[in-house]
């Protein structure tokens, strides 16, 4: 049901743009108002979320250690999985953010007869990493619409990405891979009973929005072509705060509106994991809490507990009977 | 206590396919016998000043919750979202990728989909969305949001006490989301309306009032330890000394009280006593701070700190130089990650731990001033300070269970293995994906090691037991060593059920078996028995 | 705010990265593109908006037809016929690569490989003045792939 709802939203978006920009021709709304609004919601929203997290203290050092701690000198420790200082933490985080280290550990449990087996299962990691890196490259590639002259490295990325020379203009490898990765990420949610059970509409919506974004992009580049010069004049206008509404096909507006929807949705959805992963206290702290004192959170109050002297008073008789020493200091203090 | 099915029947009953019905509508949960713990008794709650003390049962329709439960809990959520970044963040960033789904031992053993870590967190997350966010208020179920009601409180009670806070899921989560934090918060919230379990809160009460989980009074602690000393004398012919509450000693030793009198923990306790006597170091135990373990950790951060604070208090009073902690799982999570921050700084009389035998300075504990007994012993062995005869453990083929908390809350993997390899000749690790940071819970952690919870304990322990069975069949393993007092009790039950050929021991039981005392070295008295007072060699073989 | 020492630099990096397109262009004028259209002709083989969007596809088809199928006549949407010729066809009217093709291509950073083989009118002029080159130039391009 969640999937259907999300799909309907994505399709509704297409119809909305088709009518709004195509039929009614209210292009300024889609070309100027939405992009600026979405961009500032994205930027402001993410900063807001970050500050909201940062306002909350991390009271305890709850590192999840995935490797040997630093203890005796001759015990080989794991700097990446159980970092002892901030430099090692930075390395651990880099591995987590850039290589999805934890996802790479993934196992699949199977119950075969009386035996529980755990096999390596890297598909999710592969799908996730393919998706994220393709998205990044595609974003970077789009910088050609926001720069003039276009920097050399963008040309190189484009050449490499299009090096298969399929179709005119060349079909990008990243476009194909991201479609495959998205399909995988979507299908696993639908095909695996466990995932279907846990998936919400808000898990499908980002997938459909990105699907729409990618598909409309590919269609625009390779099938329903638009006047790319006008498009660039428009994008350059956007970054100079003097956008000129382009007179191009509705496919462009569909592409743009998917992007706006995604940007505006980003800070208020699970997509904030992009920023949130940096805040994860099980990963971004050093496992050195016995070596270095970490001050408690401002709200923390040391507990009141039954002191030795109070306890001794209560158990004095049995302490004496069983020959355990009585601490006379307790009475001295009282006398003072 | 519910009747347990036979192991093969239980295995056949496991089905990981989730039901058709949407999980959000599947409330209240069907409370199954053997899968819930008895609620905390009225007088216990009264004594520790917890809200809503009353007589009730999870099987009742009416849980006698306060009429404003919803307000109380929502307020509690808001409060905690401001205090714990972990909680706020983990509620925000889960993408439900499902990597954690089949990592939970309770899910693997029960197939109950709400035991998938992602869903366990979602039980709370959905309420936060429904009560506190505009998306949730506007889109409701479509945004995965629910309004809090009594049925959901029942669901929380059922499932937050089916999580052992083992943190295995957090190893696999791409964002490090730690269900332990979620469960801790869930339990704290449940306390606000008086839904909690006796197996945790009675020990907490005992700890607050008397000094240890079991409620052993000071004379009883001493008597128990003296019994153990007599047993050691039978085995070694030596009189052991255990100083209590000794001012000016160099080392304060704390360990879970379960090891004072429960089999097989007592053998580990004997191991400590023998080691300290062998080394002739200046040590003391305390009958006041007579608990190393900390069921407060399973209750609330405040209760945890309240129990732990006694240790520093006692270390200060006795004027010791540093503290050694015995083998215990969750205790070491507290000592390693919470103690200093929550109850420190360490009293001024404490110094950076320095082994009086080898001179090794334990720099990694220079702030907390507390080291693990295995760190201490591993250092001794590495310096050749222990005369060991590993052949005394030859009747054991040993494997090692990494306890959850030292593994994923400390990174404690090599020290105990180093010791084991030096004190016994036959050591085999379990399969890679079931040990170290990927280790499985005993099925009874976080205060769930109670008899009425047996069905879930045996199910949750299945992944661990299955890996033991593997090395038992492959290498003939018959002894499961561990460094946790809950394990020693819980794994014994688990092995009896799944792999009855395997026994359970602490690492220091094996150390003490192998330890050659000077008079034994000189040949004045030969060790014939192990600490369990069984012949050292397998039956039929002569003691050489 | 806690951990301000890490959070604030983090936010700055994020903002800088996301607003890159804006500050990249600070102080630069909005670029303008003007192509020089042939003065003596008013229509191309197809209408203007089609040519703007689809010329690359059309030229690609022409190349395939000529080189692979040996077929050389294009019938447009109005039924008119044209020889499929690039240097002798397209570039006859659009007599400057630099002032026609390159203006747009450079603007949107497109690098068509027409010129790997073909020779632009500008280049041709330079070549034709050298006698020794005349022979070489009259040959067909070698590598239509």
TrEMBL record, chain A:
Residues 120-275 form the NarG-like domain. InterPro entries: DsrM, Heme-iron_electron_transfer, NarG-like_domain, NarG-like_sf. Its main location: membrane. GO terms for cellular component: plasma membrane. Keywords: Cell membrane, Electron transport, Membrane, Oxidoreductase, Transmembrane, Transmembrane helix, Transport. It is a multi-pass membrane protein. Pfam families: Nitrate_red_gam. This is Menaquinol oxidoreductase. GO terms for biological process: anaerobic electron transport chain. It comes from Thermodesulfatator autotrophicus. It comes from the Bacteria. GO terms for molecular function: electron transfer activity; heme binding; nitrate reductase activity. It is found in: Cell membrane. The chain crosses the membrane at residues 6-26, 33-51, 123-143, 163-185, 197-219, 250-268.
TrEMBL record, chain B:
Residues 525-544 are annotated as: Disordered. The keyword Iron applies. It comes from the Bacteria. InterPro entries: 4Fe4S_Fe-S-bd, 4Fe4S_Fe_S_CS, Helical_ferredxn. Keywords: 4Fe-4S, Electron transport, Iron, Iron-sulfur, Metal-binding, Transport. PROSITE patterns: 4FE4S_FER_1. GO terms for molecular function: 4 iron, 4 sulfur cluster binding; metal ion binding. The keyword Cell membrane does not apply. Residues 91-177 form the 4Fe-4S ferredoxin-type domain. NCBIfam families: DsrK. PANTHER family: FUMARATE REDUCTASE IRON-SULFUR SUBUNIT (PTHR43551), HETERODISULFIDE REDUCTASE (PTHR43551:SF1). This is Menaquinol oxidoreductase. It comes from Thermodesulfatator autotrophicus. The lineage of its organism: Bacteria, Pseudomonadati, Thermodesulfobacteriota, Thermodesulfobacteria, Thermodesulfobacteriales.
From TrEMBL, chain C:
It comes from the Bacteria. Keywords: Membrane, Transmembrane, Transmembrane helix. The chain crosses the membrane at residues 7-24. This is Cytochrome C. It comes from Thermodesulfatator autotrophicus. The lineage of its organism: Bacteria, Pseudomonadati, Thermodesulfobacteriota, Thermodesulfobacteria, Thermodesulfobacteriales.
């Amino acid at each position: 049901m969640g999937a259907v709802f999300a799909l309907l939203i994505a399709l509704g978006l297409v119809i909305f743009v088709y009518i709004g920009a195509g039929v009614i021709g209210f292009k300024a709304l889609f070309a100027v108002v939405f992009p600026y609004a979405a961009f500032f919601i994205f930027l402001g929203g993410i900063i807001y979320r970050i500050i909201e997290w940062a306002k909350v203290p991390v009271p305890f050092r709850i590192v999840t250690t995935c490797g040997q701690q630093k203890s005796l000198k001759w015990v080989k420790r794991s700097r990446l999985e159980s970092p002892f200082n901030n430099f090692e933490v930075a390395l651990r985080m880099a591995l987590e953010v850039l290589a999805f280290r934890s996802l790479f550990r993934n196992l699949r449990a199977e119950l075969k007869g009386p035996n529980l087996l755990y096999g390596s299962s890297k598909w999710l990691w592969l799908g996730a990493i393919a998706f994220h890196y393709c998205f990044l490259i595609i974003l970077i590639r789009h910088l050609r619409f926001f720069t003039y002259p276009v920097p050399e490295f963008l040309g190189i990325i484009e050449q490499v990405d299009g090096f298969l020379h399929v179709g005119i203009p060349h079909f990008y490898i990243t476009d194909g891979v991201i479609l495959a990765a998205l399909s995988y990420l979507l299908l696993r949610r639908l095909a695996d009973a466990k995932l279907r059970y846990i998936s919400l509409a808000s898990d499908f919506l980002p997938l459909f929005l990105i699907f729409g974004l990618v598909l409309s992009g590919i269609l625009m580049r390779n099938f329903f072509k638009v006047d790319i010069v006008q498009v660039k004049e428009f994008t350059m206008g956007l970054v100079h705060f003097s956008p000129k509404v382009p007179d191009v096909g509705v496919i462009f507006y569909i592409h743009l509106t998917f992007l706006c929807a995604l940007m505006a949705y980003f800070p208020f959805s699970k997509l904030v994991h992009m920023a949130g992963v940096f805040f994860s206290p099980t990963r971004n702290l050093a496992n050195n809490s016995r070596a270095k004192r970490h001050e408690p959170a401002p709200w923390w109050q040391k507990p009141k507990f039954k002191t030795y002297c109070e306890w001794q008073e209560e158990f004095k008789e049995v302490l004496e009977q069983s020959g355990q020493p009585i601490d006379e200091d307790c009475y001295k203090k009282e006398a003072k | 206590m519910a009747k347990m099915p036979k192991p093969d029947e239980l295995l056949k009953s496991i089905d990981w396919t989730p039901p058709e019905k949407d999980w959000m509508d599947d409330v209240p949960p069907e409370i199954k016998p053997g899968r819930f713990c008895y609620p905390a008794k009225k007088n216990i709650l009264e004594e520790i000043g917890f809200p809503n003390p009353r007589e009730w049962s999870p099987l009742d329709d009416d849980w006698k919750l306060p009429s404003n439960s919803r307000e109380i809990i929502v307020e509690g959520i808001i409060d905690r979202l401001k205090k714990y970044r972990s909680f706020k963040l983990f509620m925000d960033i889960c993408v439900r990728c499902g990597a954690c789904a089949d990592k939970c031992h309770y899910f693997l053993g029960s197939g109950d989909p709400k035991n998938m870590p992602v869903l366990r967190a979602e039980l709370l997350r959905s309420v936060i969305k429904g009560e506190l966010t505009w998306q949730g208020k506007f889109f409701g179920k479509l945004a995965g949001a629910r309004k809090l009601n009594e049925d959901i409180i029942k669901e929380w009670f059922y499932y937050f006490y089916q999580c052992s806070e083992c943190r295995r899921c957090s190893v696999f989560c791409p964002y490090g989301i730690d269900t332990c934090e979620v469960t801790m918060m869930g339990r704290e919230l449940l306390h606000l309306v008086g839904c909690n379990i006796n197996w945790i809160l009675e020990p907490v009460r005992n700890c607050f009032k008397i000094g240890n989980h079991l409620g052993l009074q000071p004379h009883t602690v001493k008597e128990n330890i003296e019994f153990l000393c007599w047993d050691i004398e039978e085995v070694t012919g030596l009189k052991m000394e255990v100083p209590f509450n000794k001012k000016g000693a160099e080392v304060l030793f704390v360990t879970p009280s379960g090891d004072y009198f429960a089999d097989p923990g007592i053998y580990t306790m004997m191991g400590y006593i023998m080691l300290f006597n062998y080394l002739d170091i200046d040590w003391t135990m305390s009958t006041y701070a007579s608990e190393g373990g900390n069921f407060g950790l399973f209750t609330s951060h405040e209760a945890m700190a309240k129990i732990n604070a006694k240790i520093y208090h006692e270390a200060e009073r006795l004027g010791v130089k540093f503290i050694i902690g015995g083998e215990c799982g969750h205790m070491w999570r507290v000592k390693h990650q919470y103690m200093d921050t929550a109850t420190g700084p360490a009293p001024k009389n404490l110094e950076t731990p320095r082994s009086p035998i080898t001179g090794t300075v334990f720099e990694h504990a220079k702030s907390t001033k507390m080291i693990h007994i295995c760190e201490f012993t591993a250092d001794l062995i590495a310096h050749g300070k222990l005369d060991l005869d590993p052949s005394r453990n030859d009747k054991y083929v040993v494997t090692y269970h990494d306890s959850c908390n030292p593994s994923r809350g400390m990174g404690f993997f090599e020290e105990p293995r180093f010791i084991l390899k030096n004190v016994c000749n036959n050591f085999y690790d379990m399969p890679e994906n079931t040990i170290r940071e990927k280790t499985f819970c005993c099925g009874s952690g976080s205060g769930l090691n109670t008899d009425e919870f047996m069905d879930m304990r045996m199910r949750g322990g299945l992944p661990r037991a299955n890996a033991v069975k593997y090395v038992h069949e492959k290498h003939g393993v018959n002894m499961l060593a561990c460094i946790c007092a809950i394990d020693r009790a819980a794994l014994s039950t688990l092995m009896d059920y799944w792999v009855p050929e395997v026994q359970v021991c602490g690492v220091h039981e094996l150390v003490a078996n192998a330890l050659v005392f000077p008079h034994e070295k000189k040949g004045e008295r030969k060790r014939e028995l192990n600490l369990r007072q069984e012949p050292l060699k397998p039956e039929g073989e002569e003691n050489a | 705010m806690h951990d301000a020492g890490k959070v604030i630099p983090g936010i700055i990096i994020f903002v800088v990265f996301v607003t890159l397109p804006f500050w990249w262009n600070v102080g630069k004028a909005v670029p303008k593109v003007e192509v020089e259209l042939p003065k003596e002709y008013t229509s191309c083989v197809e209408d203007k908006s089609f040519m703007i969007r689809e010329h690359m596809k059309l030229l690609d088809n022409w190349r395939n037809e000529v080189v692979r199928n040996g077929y050389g006549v294009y019938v447009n949407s109005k039924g008119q016929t044209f020889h499929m010729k690039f240097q002798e066809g397209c570039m006859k009217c659009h007599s400057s690569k630099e002032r026609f093709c390159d203006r747009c291509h450079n603007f949107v950073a497109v690098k068509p490989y027409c010129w790997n083989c073909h020779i632009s009118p500008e280049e041709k002029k330079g070549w034709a003045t050298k006698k020794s080159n005349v022979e070489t130039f009259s040959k067909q391009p070698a590598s239509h792939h």
